[in-house]
Amino acid sequence: MSWTASVKIFPENEQDFPHYASPATLQVAAGTGGVELQHRDPAGNWATFETISVAGVHKLDVANMPAIRLVATGDAQYQVTWQIA
User: Is residue 13 part of a domain?
Assistant: First the structure.
């Protein structure tokens, strides 16, 4: 995946990540914003559970997690890299 500021959902089908899912690498260029990591709340709405506002490389452990949505705020951009099997 290339750098983006677009809203992205992983996995795209919004299914839960399996217990064997490999971690992802999230690279953040925060600028004046950040990247919000969101899950669906009990009402089915996307809710932010973490905001990354520091530029750098961050590990996302996604095994056994529900789908996540990434939302860039301000002029932030991000890139997600998944392990190649």
Answer: yes
Q: Give a yes or no: residue 40 inside a domain.
A: yes
42 contacts: CB under 8 Å, gap ≥ 6: none
Q: List the one residue out of 70, 85, 80, 67 whose CA is nearest residue 22.
A: 85
> How large a percentage of the chain has pLDDT more than 70?
98
Q: Are 24 and 82 in contact (CB under 8 A)?
A: yes
Q: What is the pTM of this model?
A: 0.91
- Is position 33 within any domain? yes
Query: Is the pLDDT at 84 greater than 70, yes or no?
Result: no
Tally of domains within the chain:
1
